[in-house]
What we know:
By secondary structure, the protein is mainly alpha-helical.
Amino acid sequence: xxxxxxxxxxxxxxxxxxxxxxxxxxxxxxxxxxxxxxxxxxxxxxxxxxxxxxxxxxxxxxxxxxxxxxxxxxxxxxxxxxxxxxxxxxxxxxxxxxxxxxxxxxxxxxxxxxxxxxxxxxxxxxxxxxxxxxxxxxxxxxxxxxxxxxxxxxxxxxxxxxxxxxxxxxxxxxxxxxxxxxxxxxxxxxxxxxxxxxxxxxxxxxxxxxxxxxxxxxxxxxxxxxxxxxxxxxxxxxxxxxxxxxxxxxxxxxxxxxxxxxxxxxxxxxxxxxxxxxxxxxxxxxxxxxxxxxxxxxxxxxxxxxxxxxxxxxxxxxxxxxxxxxxxxxxxxxxxxxxxxxxxxxxxxxxxxxxxxxxxxxxxxxxxxxxxxxxxxxxxxxxxxxxxxx
Length: 390
């Protein structure tokens, strides 16, 4: 269904040039989204997939382990869309304070992303509403350090920005003028709070993501925060008990189509094409996350059995304790493994030797001191399709 434009253009200036900045109409769209036929089936399939993901996450022996790894994978992927070249290994090394040669600003951006998500989830669990104040707080964490820290973290922009192009005059898209940002975000906040309008949570998340990206309320970090908003809405809407559904990989794989569909919403009012794309992404991503959780659970069980069958009770007990630490931190060094397992340094070192001989762990550094070890099979699963964009 086409609705012509979903907003209006306001004249403005940016970089000394005259621009036409787009001001979106408040949500929900008028007329309402057509949810008949195949689209209703897509919504049902996506909802079932999210339900399965929520069920699997609660059935895992330790869902926090999966959450720890999956959040970090998402942080890397979402930051890659913005042009960073950091990998999951880079992030884990950074958190281990062992990151020689890693571009600092890139990995700092990824670390900031995790801090923003953790802050947002903690606030929601405390009963704080999903609102503009929370988004500003998350933005302050997202931009706290490194690149972009001078772009007014936690504040809606007071100057014109633009997307794509080398200058405002040839930009792909120019968001709302700065004087309209507060009003646009107030309308978006009202939509987020309007929980009695009959819109399913998945559809509400689809619409809010486009609206946030269209307003582009901050000077920097809008893409990352706009993707985080999806995870927050699914948790706030009680579809997921943990923030385990992230569409960054799907958006990364279909990057051109993603931007084209955002443009079509603005220029043609084609919300239906966007909703179809979004729901297909939810279904694929949720199913993929279920598969990843099941594969990791199987890997942990198999490796634990291998270790337990490998030698004496005392030696295998120590090796199992170190293996459990690797499940929590799949890239680590002896100092952390000894501290986290509660073993003495020599005992932890022997346990690491056992795991290396079994092929569970691999040394990455080749150094005699401060050696870094990886739970390679675990990282291989998480790193699938996660290479940086070039």
